[in-house]
């Protein structure tokens, strides 16, 4: 499996951790506390708050004696803080990014806001849970068009667990039909996927027909079709409706490898109303 | 009455136990540093040499100490400060001489996997060089601290929807950039 580019970047940066001498840099930061550089670049910021889980100053007292470092001149630093803090003005568009690579272009492209943006902070399990809910309504049907090497196959199903039987044909005999069935079964079995299970490999942001989608990568644990193994299944989920829009199934046998793409067209499903919380989503015809 | 939990944990102020503005104590500063110094360093290191990246970390936390209060999202706040500090550093050319001297007197400790580290970091930098500055910014944030889209929005100072679009584009372009490097290398 190809390593995700961002994962690769993260691994590269994690590798620099041993470089920094934390104790020395901490001490260095303390020596700078009374200094007033950056003042001209730092607009004031409104007071902010600390949250203490577990009850405030009494609980703190026990920890203070174990500290290796003490920050001197704290009061003076705190008094000067509001004049030194870099503000976080939240604008509709991102301000230009400061580029610190000498000689690099200084122009910064600005992106317009998009109502199609995927939500932030969701886990794979939460995404699947929402998708399961969206596809579980009575009267929810899906039309699935699957393609393999230019060949196409269409089928219709009513949503619900176990409404699609396991494929009986051998993979190499009817790869398109077999893997289409695998895809539809995976979508209808979403409520049975547990986010804690290891078969949920990741949640990525992707794009389908110019619109953002959430790509959930699953290593199937269900029995593989006869004569082959399903090695990977990606579900591309619409973050607006939480309905799966496409499944990409990779499978292999002793003779060949297959990649079948299945596009879903849903009707009559329950989708969340953006005006109300998810749990209060209403049915939409 | 707050629930009794033995050990207090610094957290965002979006939680259930909001107790109002409280000065950041010396004890908390160590906790803050331990939790976020590496993230700030990675962010700086994505684009700066060792000594300058360390300088960014020291400066960012010096600002935090002077601030004296914990922001509602420390990680996003610290990275936004780092972003500004890095921009300032480019203008503060007079600091470069001192940094060069410090780099000479405090060389980086060699790691057990330095060759591979340098190779991966170099590859990342080459990929970043192929990106637009805006994409570079987003990737550095995501790679350094694994920020959520909402946190990226806070650092960049824009809406979550805008940040999500930028994240999406930047990731796609990073993938393309790595692909291009692979093609050139093969």
Automatic annotation (TrEMBL), chain A:
Residues 135-149 have a biased composition (Polar residues). The chain crosses the membrane at residues 71-90. Residues 100-115 have a biased composition (Low complexity). Keywords: Membrane, Transmembrane, Transmembrane helix. It comes from the Bacteria. Residues 100-168 are annotated as: Disordered. This is Uncharacterized protein. It comes from Myceligenerans indicum.
From TrEMBL, chain B:
InterPro entries: RNA_pol_sigma-70-like (IPR039425), RNA_pol_sigma-70_dom (IPR014284), RNA_pol_sigma70_r2 (IPR007627), RNA_pol_sigma70_r4_t2 (IPR013249), RNA_pol_sigma_r2 (IPR013325), RNA_pol_sigma_r3/r4-like (IPR013324), WH-like_DNA-bd_sf (IPR036388). Residues 122-174 form the RNA polymerase sigma factor 70 region 4 type domain. This is RNA polymerase sigma factor. It comes from the Bacteria. Residues 32-95 form the RNA polymerase sigma-70 region domain. Belongs to the sigma-70 factor family. ECF subfamily. Keywords: Sigma factor, Transcription, Transcription regulation. Gene3D superfamilies: 1.10.1740.10, Winged helix-like DNA-binding domain superfamily/Winged helix DNA-binding domain.
